[in-house]
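Appendix B, example 12.
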Amino acid sequence: MRIRSADILRWGRIVAALSMWVAATAGLTSYGMTFPRLAVWIERVQFMPAAMTFGITTIVIWLIVTLLFGRVYCSVACPLGVWQDICSRLPRLRRHLPSHLRYRYSQPLTLLRNISLAFVAAAILLGINIVTSHTDPWKIYSELCTDVAKPIWGAAVNILSYPPVMIAAASLTGTTISIIIAGVISWLAVKNGRTFCNSICPVGTTLGYVAKYSIYHIDINTDKCTQCRKCEQACKASCIDLTSHVVDSSRCVECFDCLPVCENDAIHYTWSRHQLSTPLMIKVGDIKPSGTRFKLDGCTGCSSNPQVNQQNNPQNATISRPSE
C-alpha cells in the first residue's frame, strides 16, 4: 500500500495533538509532582496566557509560526481545540455517515468574531478577569480538568490506594460554570466541528488574521477537482468553498483531514497557488466572424449587426471590412 504525503501530514498532526492533549490533561488532573510541572510548561506556550501577561516572546513565536504554516497552534498546541476534535470525531466514526453529520461550507461570522476579539482585548487592558477566564481556551480547559475531572480522578484513586489523596473541590458555582461552558463547546463540536474556534475564540480570530496570509496553506487544483465534495464534508472548520474553489485560510486549523479523502489528488498543503491550465476567462481582442471583422474597444452592448453597433456606440465601435 502506497503511503501518501497527505496521510503522513494528517497522522503526524494527530500524534502531535494527542501527545500535547494527554500531557496537558495528565498535568492538570494528577495528584503527583511530576505531571503538574509539565502542565506549567504547557501553559507557558499557550497564546492567551502569554497575551494576558504580555509575554511578547511567546506571542511573536506563534505569530511567525502561523504566518509560515497557518493555524497549527489551534490543531496541535491548544488542548481545548484537540478536545473539540475528539468530540466531533466520535459521532462520525460510523461507516455510513448520515447527511446531517456531514460538514458543509458556511459563511464566516466576521462581525461576531471581531466583536468577541474587541471585547476580550478591552477586558485584558482593563484587567477584567471574569471575561478573559471564560473566553480563554486554555483557562476553559484547565478549569474543566481541575474543577471536574481532578476530583473525580481523586475519588477513583482513593478507592484503589492508601493513604488517600486530599481532594480539593472547587466551589459549586465554579464547577457548574465550568460544566456549562465545556458542555456548550462540546455540543457545538459534535454538531458542527470547530464552531467555537472560528466564531468566539479570541485566539482563533487573532491567529486567523495572520493565517489569511500564511505561506503554506490548503490549495485546490481546479484542473483535477471533480466537485465530489468529499473534502468539504471532511472539513471541521467549514471553510472549503467548492463553488469558488477557495479555502478560507483564516478559519482553516490545518487539521489535514481534507487531504487524504480526495481520490483525484486535487487538494494539497502547499506554498503555491494553482493556476488553471485552461483559463475560464480570456482577454478578447479581435473577434472575427465570417465575412466581417469587428474591432471592439470598450464597446458595451454590441450586437452582431454593424448598424446597430454604430447607433448604440458610434465612437467605440469601429467596423472594417476585409478588402475584396
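The first strand starts at residue 217 and ends at 220. Residues 246 and 286 are 32 Å apart (CA to CA).
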